[in-house]
Amino acid sequence: MKKIIQDLSFAELENLILSFGEKKFRARQLYEGLTRGKSISGINVPAALREKLLSEYEDEPVKIIKTLRSEDGTEKYLYALADGNVVEGVLMKYKYGNTQCVSTQVGCRMGCKFCASTLGGLIRNLTSGEILAQVLTVNALHSVQGRRGVTNVVLMGSGEPLDNYGNVVGFLKNVSVEAGINISPRNISLSTSGLVPKIYALADEGLAVNLTVSLHAVTDEERARTMPVAKKYSISEILKACSYYFEKTGRRYIFEYALIAGENCGKEHAEGLINLLKGRPCHVNLIRLNEVKERDLSTITEKQAYAFLGLLEKGGLSATLRRRTGADIGGACGQLRANYLNG
Ligand code: SAH
User: Fold this and answer.
1) Model confidence over 41-74: pLDDT tens digits?
2) Res 274: pLDDT
3) Given Cys at both, which of 45, 96, 287, 327 links 322, Cβ 3.0 to 4.6 Å?
4) What predicted TM-score, i.e. pTM, was given to this entire model?
């Protein structure tokens, strides 16, 4: 694989252009073109410069090879990377704007029992530019009259973002820089299965993105049944790290809680959540598990889910039941890629 030009910050791109003996303004021109989702060959620079760039850099490191559209407007994409790997992403349309879900790794090594992304283990990390190019490509598709087509980004596609820490932080910096696509950290959410030391590190980066932790259980024993990472980091260590994150960033944190039938949605679990989280500056996002055909887990009915939500609210927690978008197109993590790989 050649290098990924979207890995470069504007200053790095400028240095590259100067090192080629080209005029400085070419850097600005390239950067603007790339920010608009163009490939190197689609940007109008002199042929000699284009060829020099293309001999070292991938022309289109992230290419949409399949799009599924849901009745509710959600779009799901399968992207081909330059080395032939594929990752997936989603664009969800809300009243306030469009939220794009990006992948940070090809596959994942966390091994959560309910998730399709981790079925084949971790293949490789994405570079910061491969993550950014997902946003730039989809933004270009949906941008109308210069208005951004992507207003919010969630790092909830395949992969564990904090297991690819350096590249993810690079992406967060480049996607939020004013000269680029300029998506503000407050419109970005990073979801983690709970890699505690990396939560502390992220708090210290000064980026202040929204932190989401996949909790899915109220005791370490139960959590370890579906999330192997629970054997490494306890819920109490996670809560401490979240407090630190709040102290450093002032951002309220969020817990994801996928409702799994017979596993985590009893009355005792609602009570457990209330005991753990009451009084904390946090929000609970309930989601009815998306059933993955390779996995033997099911979810509860919508009515039962609302009853569970009612218990949390009565107990004083801020909580919502997440609308299930794109269920008709296999909106759940890793399903599209898994289907693709299985032919
Ligand atoms: N690795 C990160 C981010 C990717 S997953 C993390 O674990 O947070 C994004 C969210 O989707 C996580 O909360 C994850 O637990 C959840 N998820 C995975 N598979 C799911 C499924 N089948 N149904 C509902 N949520 C799922």
Assistant:
1) 999 999 999 999 999 999 999 999 999 998 888 9
2) 98
3) 287
4) 0.96
Buried b (16+ CB within 10 A) or exposed e, 144-179: eeeeebbbbbbbbbbbbbbbbbebbbbbbbbbbeee
Residues within 6 Å of ligand 1 by CB: 110, 112, 114-115, 156, 160, 191-193, 214, 256, 258, 287, 289-290, 292, 332-333
